[in-house]
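Hi R.,

Here's the chain you asked about this morning:
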Amino acid sequence: KMPKLIIEGVGEVNVESGTRLVLALSDNNADNVHACGGFARCTTCQVEFMGGEPQKCTRAERDVLERNNKVGDFRLACQTLVNEDMHVRVLMKFSEAVDRILASVEGFPG
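And here is the predicted structure, written out as tokens:
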């Protein structure tokens, strides 16, 4: 059976087993950021698991979280495969990131 993915603020979707979580989120309008192309470098694809967090963690994810003292704070959607039911919250939304960038540009209206 296809795993069920619950995305906070978006809803519930069925996802093909083995899909990268980052793609399942963007395919379902989760407003998620992913800047480095899935290489666990930028940490913009942060998610919080409300349920179904996989125990497995890639070496790349573990390395970047340890390097930034963020182990246990969040997981990286680009390093997570949807193989079972999951419930996640996107921590860095694209629309909010754009708003922050625009607000930091001197003279930008708004």
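One quick note: The longest helix spans residues 94-104.

Cheers,
M.
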